[in-house]
Design a protein that fits this description.
27% strand, alpha+beta, 99 residues, 6 strands, globular
């Protein structure tokens, strides 16, 4: 699935994973596939944010406020991570508003 997001697209974790701290990040076990995923510290922060529906703009703003990163790099990295999580079935999105 290819996701071409707008700033107002909303994402939320599906609830199909169990997460535990692992070093400075998180280990995720996808309960449907029994596949493990690891997230670094920034990815773990984004995972924490998307436990409730959030817009892409809100996620990027939170990451920019917390980490010293270029805005364009942040946008590309956040979209890349979310695309991977969507493809893995760990996150769902909806254009404009989550229903």
């Amino acid at each position: 699935m290819h996701w071409n997001p707008s700033d107002h697209d909303r994402v939320v974790a599906t609830g199909d994973a169990v997460a535990c701290e692992f070093g400075s990040g998180l280990a995720l076990l996808h309960l449907k596939s029994n596949i493990y995923y690891s997230l670094n510290g920034v990815g773990a922060y984004i995972w924490e944010l998307i436990q409730e529906p959030r817009s892409l703009l809100d996620i990027r703003s939170a990451v920019l406020a917390r980490y010293d990163v270029d805005a364009e790099r942040c946008k590309a990295d956040v979209i890349g991570l979310l695309n991977g999580l969507i493809e893995a079935g760990l996150v769902r999105f909806h254009h404009e508003e989550l229903v």
